[in-house]
Amino acid sequence: xxxxxxxxxxxxxxxxxxxxxxxxxxxxxxxxxxxxxxxxxxxxxxxxxxxxxxxxxxxxxxxxxxxxxxxxxxxxxxxxxxxxxxxxxxxxxxxxxxxxxxxxxxxxxxxxxxxxxxxxxxxxxxxxxxxxxxxxxxxxxxxxxxxxxxxxxxxxxxxxxxxxxxxxxxxxxxxxxxxxxxxxxxxxxxxxxxxxxxxxxxxxxxxxxxxxxxxxxxxxxxxxxxxxxxxxxxxxxxxxxxxxxxxxxxxxxxxxxxxxxxxxxxxxxxxxxxxxxxxxxxxxxxxxxxxxxxxxxxxxxxxxxxxxxxxxxxxxxxxxxxxxxxxxxxxxxxxxxxxxxxxxxxxxxxxxxxxxxxxxxxxxxxxxxxxxxxxxxxxxxxxxxxxxxxxxxxxxxxxxxxxxxxxxxxxxxxxxxxxxxxxxxxxxxx
Length: 430
Ligand code: ATP
Ligand code: MG
Fold this sequence. Notes:
39% of the residues lie in helices and 20% in strands. It is α+β, with helices and mostly antiparallel strands. The strands form 3 sheets. It has an 8-stranded mixed β-sheet with strand order 1-5-6-11-10-9-7-8, sandwiched between helices. Strands 13-12-14-15-16 form a 5-stranded mixed β-sheet, with helices on both faces. Helix 13 (340-355) links the parallel strand 12 (333-337) and strand 13. Helix 1 (19-37) runs antiparallel to helix 5. Magnesium ion (MG) binds at residues 64, 263.
């Protein structure tokens, strides 16, 4: 009896990386690791699932993420509310506190991996996406804010990306924000008639976020609102100036954006975003800032911190506009063979090649020499090795250069004693 099954598809907004672009992801991750190592940042891996209260407390109740974007569910075993991480910082800080990472020194750390947000999927906005998250924990000076920003500039450069620019702002400290907040609420009250539903709802709970609106009808009101920057005291201003001076030293240009507040509640002093006009509406590739209060808020001994996150899908999209993908070969050597004995010999020879660091694929399944050669060619391999009855009988394999050498017959095919094959091929590819 046969039964037709319906196809199960991926969840909307959650993407597969297929073998074709998987290599590209690896290439990006490799570049990222080299870049991070250049600044002494060390890898951390935290769980994808955390207690929901970590994020409600750490990110803030009145934020887009906590209000409407989290994948939360109740653990059926014990009734606890759990959430798929929507960002890294809260989990990284939790781990740092839990393992007392800051007890004797500050930590420069990073993590790379998937995060989850229940948003409306579109270009550059997915429900599962990936972040490169970089955090400097336990350091308070403007030097470290600048280091992080300059670091990001180096990544763009390493990837050959030119059209990203930096926007920065300072959110000051609690008291400065409180004074500004009072002035801002007065301004919002005076312009109640232009506020949309979100604006009215947040006007007392998170008035700063009201200014972060994308609603065109509210732009004039937002432009005219009191600017937080004007409420900053000397210490906050000096910190900001310290960051700017160091950006100047490094030749990193920036634009002061007094309206930038960032989506999360926990920021203070420096906030920044790297934006581009090459990605349509989803223009921000990297966002970050200082969050000196978060470690204490999550139950740790008070310590300053600053960090940023890069959206990898957006970075991949952007990178692809500068550097076209070059297909990565599946292997260096492809074994074409006929018959059981030849297949087994090829398998052992391929193991020998891998021992000396040369990648190899042994054709799997049957097929004529012709069809196997076709596969060898599409694999991108540099060399094909042919093992058939004749070769086994004479102890000499045929080696065919598929690419990378002049294709005159003498050069393109050679006879090599099987017992010298591994050494021969190793020399050939180096
Ligand atoms: P946006 O304003 O675009 O929603 P955000 O402020 O919510 O961004 P952050 O929380 O700062 O974003 O996340 C850091 C980075 O992750 C962003 O700068 C962006 O590159 C990327 N990012 C954020 N949300 C998504 C998403 N849904 N899909 C893909 N990338 C995203
Ligand atoms: Mg968002």
